[in-house]
UniProtKB/TrEMBL annotation:
It comes from the Bacteria. The lineage of its organism: Bacteria, Pseudomonadati, Bacteroidota, Sphingobacteriia, Sphingobacteriales. The keyword Membrane applies. Keywords: Membrane, Transmembrane, Transmembrane helix. This is PH (Pleckstrin Homology) domain-containing protein. The chain crosses the membrane at residues 12-34, 46-67.
Amino acid sequence: MSEKPAFIEKQYLGREFIPITIRLVLAMFCFAAYFFTDERERNGDLLVVVGFAIIIISIIMGFLLHFRTQVQNKSILLNGLWTTRLVKIDLNGIIKAEKGQYSKYLFNNPVYNLHTKGTIRFYTAGNDAIHLTDRDGLIYIIGSQHANEFLRAIKDEMKK
């Protein structure tokens, strides 16, 4: 058993393009509303505070790890934020692994270990995902920004 993972990917909450854009537009709206308030009243000052708070929260979220994916020792290890449990997917029970699209929607919420309709989802950002089907028919959908390398590492581990 090797100690070195065949694949490691870290996905961060605040690095998705569309939510960053939304937060920056909100901050710009707060600054523009402050600029156009008359006589800089106390409520106008609140707009500046909210604008700076949005920017600071966006910066902090850029460093906030959502989950880490590792392919190691014929298994996939998914480790999430503080209180989430480690999820270990044994590759010996996987019958099919393929690359696909995570969702047909443009906007997707980040999820970790979401069980719905016979699937278990892990997603932070991007459009690509790896679809794993186990012997019981349960489908794991793991979003990845490096789906080709992730799939190659899974297939290499399954051959061992």
